């Protein structure tokens, strides 16, 4: 929340790079479990900050994402049809837990209104304690769409709880207390989505999907409740907009190394 919707973000901020490991295991014909581990770096360019003389600043937000869950097929028909037509209705539940490394800004001067503070040794100010966890539950309906492939639609509900904060390693206790903040946000979501899975060639499956997310409930708390007015904007939640919806479009291309 401290970085999202920040009008100071510049350049290619938001670009992602990383790697992901995903494992699926079928326990029975109708029940499967899965686990995902992902490590990613999101490019962050905060642009010019007038209240600081920057010595060094991180250029990415590094995050680890972990998910576990299961998928239970409630209904499946026409599996033996020679043309492959079928209908599938299933339930999927997922739990997730994510954490990010602190985002550090190292400075040697701090400008607070008419006051300039100079540090003998460069001092780090951090956006830290970045973590969130939650769960989602979705009902999925899949239908053979003939030459178009397999079409899937889903609806779901989810909850999440996220934490973040700001801090500094400044020796001066007054400055340290000035920049110590803790944030928490609890949210509830509704999901609607659809995807199309088809084979471009025999070994080249392609998936195209869209998901709409609506935040139905959001509760935000901070400590202290009223931060000092002299706190630099990049370490506060000022100017944040209350985004309530999100549109997510994705495409995935795979390749089978061995023939099926």
- Over the alpha carbons, how many angstroms does the gyration radius reach? 23 Å
How much helicity do the residues have?
under 10%
Q: Quickly count the helices.
A: 1
Report how far the terminal alpha carbons are from each other: 45 Å
Silhouette: elongated
Number of strands: 11
For the biggest sheet, the summary is: 11 strands, antiparallel
- The low-confidence parts are 1-7
Q: Specify the oligomeric state.
A: single chain
Strand content: over 45%
What would you note in describing this structure?
By secondary structure, the protein is mainly beta. The protein contains one helix and eleven strands. It has one helix at residues 173-178, and strands at residues 16-26, 31-43, 52-57, 60-77, 87-100, 103-112, 115-144, 150-168, 181-201, 204-223, 245-253. The longest helix is centred in the C-terminal third of the chain and has 6 residues, at 173-178. The model is unreliable at 1-7 (pLDDT under 50).
Topology, pairings included?
Elements: E1 16-26, E2 31-43, E3 52-57, E4 60-77, E5 87-100, E6 103-112, E7 115-144, E8 150-168, H1 173-178, E9 181-201, E10 204-223, E11 245-253
Antiparallel strand pairs: 1-2, 2-4, 3-6, 4-5, 5-7, 6-7, 7-8, 8-9, 9-10, 10-11
Structural key phrases:
11 strands; mainly beta; eleven-stranded antiparallel sheet; 2% helix; 260 residues; single chain
Summarize the structure.
The protein is mostly beta strands and 260 residues long. The protein has 1 helix and 11 strands, in the order ββββββββαβββ. The model is unreliable at 1-7 (pLDDT under 50).
């Amino acid at each position: 929340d401290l970085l999202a919707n920040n009008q100071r973000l510049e350049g290619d901020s938001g670009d992602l790079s990383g790697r992901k490991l995903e494992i699926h295991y079928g326990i029975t014909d109708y029940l499967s479990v899965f686990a995902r581990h992902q490590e990613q770096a999101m490019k962050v360019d905060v642009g010019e900050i007038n209240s600081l003389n920057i010595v060094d600043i991180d250029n990415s937000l590094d995050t680890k994402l972990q998910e576990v869950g299961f998928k239970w097929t409630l209904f499946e028909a026409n599996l033996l049809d020679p043309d492959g037509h079928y209908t599938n209705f299933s339930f999927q539940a997922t739990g997730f837990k994510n954490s990010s490394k602190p985002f550090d800004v190292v400075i040697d001067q701090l400008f607070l209104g008419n006051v300039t503070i100079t540090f003998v040794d460069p001092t780090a100010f951090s956006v830290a304690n970045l973590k969130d966890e939650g769960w989602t539950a979705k009902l999925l309906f899949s239908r053979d769409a003939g030459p178009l492939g397999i079409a899937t639609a889903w609806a779901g509900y989810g909850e999440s709880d996220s934490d973040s904060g700001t801090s500094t390693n400044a020796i001066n206790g007054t400055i340290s207390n000035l920049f110590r903040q803790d944030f928490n946000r609890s949210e509830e979501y509704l999901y609607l989505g659809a995807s199309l899975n088809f084979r471009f060639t025999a070994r080249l499956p392609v998936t195209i999907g869209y998901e709409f997310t609506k935040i139905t409930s959001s509760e935000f708390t901070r400590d202290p409740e009223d931060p000092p007015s002299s706190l630099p904007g990049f370490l506060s939640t000022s100017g944040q907009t209350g985004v309530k919806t999100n549109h997510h479009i994705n495409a995935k291309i795979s390749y089978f190394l061995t023939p099926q």
